[in-house]
Amino acid sequence: MRKIFSTFIVLAVAIAAFGQAKKPILMVVPSDQYCISRGYKMEFENQGMKQVLPDYKAALQNDPDLRLVITKMGQIMADRGFPLKDLEQELKNLEQENAESMMLTSKSSASELAESPIDALKRVAKADIILDLDFQIKRQGPQKYIVFNLKGLDAYTAKQVSGVAGAGSPSTAASPELLLEEAVLSHMDNFNAGLMRHFEDMFAKGREVKVQIKVWSNWGEDLESEFGEDGEELSEIIENWFFDNCVEGRFNLSDASENFMKLEQVRIPMMKTDDRGRERAVDTRSFVRDLQKYLKDMGIPSKLYLRGLGEAWLILGEK
Fold it and tell me: Are strands 26-30 and 129-140 parallel, antiparallel or unpaired?
């Protein structure tokens, strides 16, 4: 009896610990292919090239099947304990921020922020994983069935971290959201396990981002200029800063010259303790801003640009 009771206690503690495990924040987004193939798109001229991007707002306003399927997909993930960001609400938040973002330009060059709609959406929503959903409802005689492709994408790197695709069974009466539920449920355990493996890797080894260091042409100094009491080259000072502040010193200086440094696979911590002793989430902006402050203390002003959620440029010489 005592052995059974002890086993029950151990099991209860394990279940409680698992239930308290932090899970990634998700946001379900229709795939580019789904939006663009149905005409929910925006077209731009970018350096003489035509660029076509998905228009999520138009898709949600005009496609009732999409709204039902996204809601159901969110519900399926919420039932498994994953916190969610609602796409429609985040689009509204983005609209409120757009006016401010459009005003965010360099005081010197008037260069605009380079962000695609999905980059801007991810920046506002701050989801960890984007669930990129594509589906098509097909007919087989009087019956309907759904074919789907679901990808879990790291919101910072756009790398696929989990995925599943398949088709449901034909049905005569099922609505789109029920067709989806029936089709995906048998795949969700493996899919969710892939998401959690990636998330646990991020906590252990840091979140992966990219950083570029550039130099304004009118600064008068460059990355080979010497600073500090020891007369170190600026590029060496910056490289040492990354080694000291990345998780386990993990980053890759993939290219460099006297005018730029390109740092990839930069592993930033997920959380940090601020000056007031509070635990704060770390993102690309806050991580590179710490470098900006470090260089400012050395008398080096700079401008911080975000290029999406997972890439930042720090341009040295002026704001």
Answer: parallel
Yes or no: say if 312 and 305 are a contact pair by the CB < 8 Å rule: yes
Distance between CA atoms of 76 and 71, rounded to whole angstroms?
9
Indicate yes or no: pTM above 0.85.
no
- Asked whether residue 57 carries a pLDDT value surpassing 60, the answer given is yes
Contacts of 53 (CB under 8 A, 6+ apart): 32, 41, 42, 43, 44, 116, 117, 118
Q: What is the DSSP secondary structure assignment for residue 171, as one 8-state letter?
A: B
Q: Are residues 56 and 167 in the same domain?
A: yes
Structural domain range at position 260: 206-316
> Which residues, at least 6 apart from 162, have a Cβ–Cβ distance to it below 8 Å?
151, 152, 191, 192, 193, 194, 195, 198
**Each residue's pLDDT tens digit, 220-238:** 999 999 998 888 999 999 9
Q: d(Cα 30, Cα 239) in Å, to the nearest integer?
A: 39
* Domain final position from 204, 233, 257: 204
Determine contact, residues 133/168, Cβ cutoff 8 Å.
no
Residues 6+ apart with CB under 8 A from 81: 19, 23
